Amino acid sequence: MLELYNFAQSTCSLKVRLALHEKGIDWVDRVLVSKNQDHLSDWYLKLNPNGVVPTLIHNGTPVIESSVIVQYLDEIFPPVSLTPPTPLARAEMRAFLAFVDAVPTPAVRYPSFQYGGLIRKFLAMTDAEFAESVALRPLKGEFYKRMGRTGFPREDIDRALADIVKTAGRMDLLLEKNGGPFLMGEQLTLADVAVAPLIDRMEDLGFAYLWESRYPRVATWLADLQARPAYGQAYYPGSRLSDQFPDLGLGCGTDARERQPELAAAAE
Ligand SMILES: N[C@@H](CCC(=O)N[C@@H](CS)C(=O)NCC(=O)O)C(=O)O
Questions:
Q1: Pocket around ligand 1: residues whose beta carbon is below 6 Å from it?
Q2: Could you say which architecture CATH assigns to the domain 87-119+152-267?
Q3: What region does 247 belong to: left with phi over 0, alpha with psi -120 to 50, or beta?
């Protein structure tokens, strides 16, 4: 019996939902709501002391960390494998998973909060409520303090966008070297599953311009993945910030520079 505690819109949760659907595994969806701070309640912190989603529960035992969870799932349900067959290719895939955890995963949070509506619930709090909410977070207090009540400083956004360009560059190299259509070549692997929700989020926020002309292979790769049935299952309505905050004018095909003039100036 597999249960997944997750948020509809969370990129780390989507990574695991994509793996589950691609592998055709039966699982129970335990949806938490971030704005209600379900993930910071005592019962959940016993499952995941980091106070973040996702958490997989396998026959009553929690498994945490999305990159660990997807590798665990691939080990215990081998029929549809998302891991390359040779040791060297597996090493290349795992190195990419480590890069995804270190570089684009944190980077995507900055534009998501600043431009994607996630800052809103914090703006609606009093100073005391905000301080309390920050103090509750086992790992993420500093991130929220830095955001504060006015948003991230410009240098944080610039660094985050540069990290996304770097990520697209790494993906382009893999697509070229391994011949596509997936990052590791002909086989869809955990490398694709890990990074897809991050690139999808950036597209949804209107940042596809960061890779479209520089790395067109990445745009083709994303469109191919989005066309897969498992992708549509993982991305049920409400999974994108454009669904959750329709008044912001987000969505695939939009351009963040039109909404945020400071981005247009930086891109020149
Ligand atoms: N390294 C963790 C990161 C998990 C993470 O940051 N999850 C976010 C959603 S994508 C979260 O739960 N945020 C809650 C918060 O910011 O309070 C993983 O990969 O599972």
A1: 10-12, 39, 52-54, 65-67, 137, 140
A2: Up-down Bundle (1.20)
A3: alpha
